[in-house]
Amino acid sequence: MKLEKHIPVLLKESIKSLNIKNNGFYIDGTFGQGNHSKLILSKLGNYGKLYAIDCDYKSIKIASSIKNNKIKIIHGSFSNIEKYMKKHNMLGKINGILLDLGISNLQLNNYKRGFSFMKDELLDMRMDNTNGIPLYKILNKININELSLILKKYGEEKFCYRIAKKIIIYRKKKKIRTTFDLLKIISKAIPIKNKFKHYATKSFQALRIFINNELNNIKKLLKSSLSVLSKNGRLSIISFNSLEDRIIKKFMKKYSSKINIPQGLPISEKKIKEINFTKLKILKKIIPSHNEIINNIKSRSAILRIAEKIN
Ligand SMILES: C[S@@+](CC[C@H](N)C(=O)[O-])C[C@H]1O[C@@H](n2cnc3c(N)ncnc32)[C@H](O)[C@@H]1O
């Protein structure tokens, strides 16, 4: 079967934003099909290094086929970068971290993981299918309130309770197993269908975010980036939905704001330094050009945010 290629989003812009140094050390936390990683590698000199991370074992196989001694491949979640970099004695030495969030075209269309409601597949939805429990097993057990909350919190689905209720009713008669089982249930639960957005989009997004712990992984990575990056190290993150973007924006804002200390307050320079947690400088926000969106419609919701560690 022919594999569908992943079209990289904001490729040139995100690599430029890393300001790659010839012999610098970089992390690509979302290797995928390696489009960003390959471009980083092409810019590295003999002493440079790229740590390529992905939680999907299939991506790790792709990474393993790259013959280049500047790449170090790590199978696992980018949320653990602090642990990985500690192990490699690289804490505070990384010159740039790149994340291109979400799933790749391969995961969506080729791996039969149940990410897409356009195909009837086993409803697994794990990016790392060597860990955890597939979604269909959870849907056959979870209680109505928890399920409804997931659909609301991660999908902003206004019919969350109706969908949750239909799922509970359905599974009393028959176990939920596939994407199409779920699609049928959602279709019955939604009274009015929007012409411009598929009725299952929000629920599928919510369940994917939930099962892969996506938002918590981002929060953990952001916190760790402060100890992993070197001075002037860059943090460049491409997000694809408002939930992700809000977290990134809030984090960058928090660590780039200065605390205003009223003049004349009897407080030492040393104390000011201690309580001032300004660690980042926000550099830029970039969205895809009109041309990129025309050539790759999936890029339309992308936002690249860039910050630099200042101390
Ligand atoms: C959009 S794709 C990246 C595509 C890649 N930049 C390219 O152009 O080839 C996102 C990748 O990140 C991986 N991923 C998502 N969340 C992850 C996490 N918490 N830790 C590690 N990898 C993750 C997915 O498995 C997927 O392969």
Task: Please explain how this structure is put together.
S-adenosyl-L-methionine binds at residues 54, 78, 100, 107. GO terms for molecular function: rRNA (cytosine-N4-)-methyltransferase activity. One of its GO terms (cellular component) is cytoplasm. It is found in: Cytoplasm. Belongs to the methyltransferase superfamily. RsmH family. The protein is of the alpha/beta class and 311 residues long. The chain folds into two domains: 11-106 and 214-309, Vaccinia Virus protein VP39 (Rossmann fold); 129-211, Putative methyltransferase TM0872, insert domain (DNA polymerase, domain 1, Orthogonal Bundle), CATH 1.10.150. Helices cover 42% and strands 15% of the residues. The protein contains 14 helices and seven strands. The protein has helices at residues 11-17, 35-43, 57-64, 81-87, 105-109, 135-139, 144-155, 160-173, 179-189, 201-211, 214-228, 242-254, 269-275, 290-295; strands at 25-28, 49-54, 71-75, 94-100, 229-239, 280-286, 303-309. The chain has a seven-stranded mixed sheet, with helices on both faces. It is globular. Bound molecules: S-adenosylmethionine.
